[in-house]
Amino acid sequence: PLCPQWPYCRKRCSYCNFNTYVVPAVDEAAVRACLVQEAHTLLHLSQVCSITSVFFGGGTPSLASPHTIAAVLEAVAGAAHLPTSAEVTLEANPSSTDTSRLTGFRAAGVNRLSIGVQVRGALPCGPAAHRDPTVTTLSPQSLDDAELRLLGREHTAAEARKAVEAAQGLFPGRTSIDLMFGLPGQSRDAWAQGLEAALGLCDDHISLYQLTLERGTALAAQVRAGTLPLPPQDLLADMYQTARTVLVAAGFRHYEVSNFARKGALSNHNLSYWRAEQYIGVGPGAHGRFVPRGEGSCSREARVQTPEPVAWMREVQSQGHGTRSWVVLSPLEQLEELLTLGLRTDEGVTHERWGHFSPQLSLQAVFGVPGEARALQEQGWLLLDSSGLRCTWAGLAVLDSLLPDLLCQLQRR
């Protein structure tokens, strides 16, 4: 997977602490040239020779022109194998995605659209830490004008609905919407109504995210000051369980903690992250995990690109890439990431995938012996069988509370 980042937005949302920038003007030609150059450089530095997905995140990548999207894809195809079946995702904002613009993105190579929409009681969350390739993604929105104002969005609910309709027309079966719950003042009934509205809009792929208050954001300051009340924890848990029940009853597969798909519309790009595959981050603040060319299979590096766009461009122009830091992950760190990410999915960590990272020590040898994992199995949270290690339906909802014990058991081995 390749993850190009477009760091610019027209306006910063009240809940956002992503690496985004609001500037008077963007030199798109310069940014495009640097994205192309860095993608080319990092692909040649890595052992990655085939790209199965590309995910344009941000920021608001729909503010970039289709020409920029096409140029990056051409660079990828020139440096590695980019099959016609590759998933290409673009995150998009309803205010920058009219039908003609979406048509331009599709012509440029985008084939999947992910839209953040806030239906009443539900708030679409932004760019998956890593989103789909060849897909267009609309960043966090709402279908309720009052919630949109609370979130600091610049578009209206009507624009959000129109964007989803246009996306489904251009990307049939490959449209995803993001919903966020746990907004200040949000009730159980409002959330349930929001889910029904979402199902009426999009029936392919839905992602759910609980609102997280990040330090330094306007929304966090309002909550701290007592002007906005957050729902209590038991209500948040109830909202999540309600959503799971409603979506599964509607025919969705709950294939990852926050993600639900129907009719095979899973996000292959995001699955690659949860399966701990190599990926290359391109652009300001992008993250990556890959094995450098010429190195052994245990020397996977964690890379972070320079976050500030002007500094990043200066570094790309001078040295071909803007990597700010990189560290070699130890075998234990790689297994910790595999466990933490893999257990987020309904398939869990398979024996085959574990064996790729740990050929000498099997899943059974680590978690099939007396210890925390066995206790969690006995309590009905975890399963270890011929398929691998995975959470039960109940365990998936409380994964964060299970991981510390599992990581402790892993570290003792």
Description:
- There is one protein chain.
- About 6% of the residues have low confidence.
- 41% of the residues lie in helices and 18% in strands.
- Helix 1 packs across helix 10, helix 2 runs parallel beside helix 3 and helix 3 packs parallel to helix 5.
- The strands form three sheets. A nine-stranded mixed sheet has the order 8-9-7-6-4-3-2-1-10, with helices on one face. The protein has a three-stranded antiparallel sheet with strand order 11-12-13, with no helix packed on it. It has a three-stranded antiparallel sheet with strand order 14-16-15.
- It has 413 residues and is of the alpha/beta class.
- The protein has two domains: 271 residues, Alpha-Beta Barrel (TIM Barrel); 82 residues, Arc Repressor Mutant, subunit A (Orthogonal Bundle), CATH 1.10.10.
- The protein is globular.
- The chain is built from 16 helices and 16 strands.
Q: What's this entry about, in short?
A:
By secondary structure, the protein is an alpha/beta fold. Helix content is 41%, strand content 18%.
